[in-house]
Amino acid sequence: MKPLLPSRASDAGVPGLACLFVAAVLALPAHGQPVVDAVIPFADAHVHLNDPAMQRDLMQRWGATHAVVFWGGRSSNESVLDAARSQPELIPFASISPERTAYRPAWERDDPALLHQLDALLASGAFRGIGEIAAAHFPAAGFAETDFSPLGPMMTGIMELARKYRLPVMVHVESTRLQELAAMLLRFPDVPVIWAHGGYTPLFLARRMLQQHPNLYYELSARTWPRHPRSPDYTILRDGVEVWPEWLQLIEQMPGRFLVGTDASHRSPASEAMKFASVQDFLRQIRPPVREQVARGNLLRLVGLAP
After folding, report:
1. Which of 163, 132, 134, 128 lies closest to 146, judged by CA?
2. Spatial distance between the Cα atoms of 149 and 234, rounded to a whole number of angstroms
3. For 29-49, what is each residue's pLDDT tens digit?
């Protein structure tokens, strides 16, 4: 898939980091020809697929060769799977996450019928993973808080299905449930767990969890944004552009354990372009010898698409 760059700064329509990226792309030398910063191919680990057409355009413009997709506010397991059938670069994950109004009561009463639904979805062989499962998610605009134990019957059932079908699981678990998440990882050492946004943990907790749990993968979606709407502490950037050297050091020490993502949700072309531009800027700061693993290799291996 050949990436298409914005032809003018106004095409990107985004402030901050995305505009800086576009400005760099469009810098003109004396002979009048544009200098184009090469787009780094990457596999996006985190997309809420609300608009498949917008997603396809964004992937082409910003170098995403593949994307893990699951539902958003305007989609479902069925619509995600339909899109993936027509766009083979999309990697569908099945979700029964409790933020869904229809599913939350089942989580509250530990209803095994919901696990049977997930089992039926996975038995089709069409899905390459499970998630995003927001077991413990702080409240946000339009998103009610969820707070279910990673050791509870529902998460345990999900992990057992992941083991049965040999699939990775993406979980959103905040640091308030860190001990239970650690215990879950120990209980299912053979199940790869993708930690969405790395639980927004600080550096020392990221290092500790990765050292103690070899089946844990730290996913960086929303951590590379210049600003995060929930907390300025959630970004790993020290000034909106440069990654903290300590974070780069950890990522390059453990390159097989990190994934990149956009957390795209297709609210607007401008907001999504910011997210994709932030991934490109982050990847440029990683040394080339380890960049390919973080950008693509780790995720494609987890979902069975590695060459």
Report:
1. 134
2. 22
3. 333 333 347 899 999 999 999
- What torsion do the CA atoms of 253, 136, 240, 22 make, to the nearest 10 degrees? 90
Tokens of 37: 């910063």
Q: pLDDT over 90 for what percent of the chain?
A: 82
- Residue labelled with tokens 């049977």: 116
Q: What is the DSSP letter of 13?
A: -
Q: Are 4 and 264 in contact (CB under 8 A)?
A: no
Rounded CA separation 151/93 (Å): 21
* Structure-block tokens of residue 110: 């530990």
| 121 token code pair | 């979805």
**Beta strand 90-94 with 169-173: parallel, antiparallel or unpaired?**
unpaired
The pTM of the full predicted model, rounded to 2 decimals, is 0.88
For residue 90, give both structure tokens: 């999309």
What distance in Å separates the CA atoms of residue 132 and residue 139, rounded to the nearest whole number?
Answer: 16
pLDDT digits (tens, 9 = 90+) for 198-228: 999 999 999 999 999 999 999 999 999 999 9
DSSP run (H or E) holding 173: strand 169-173
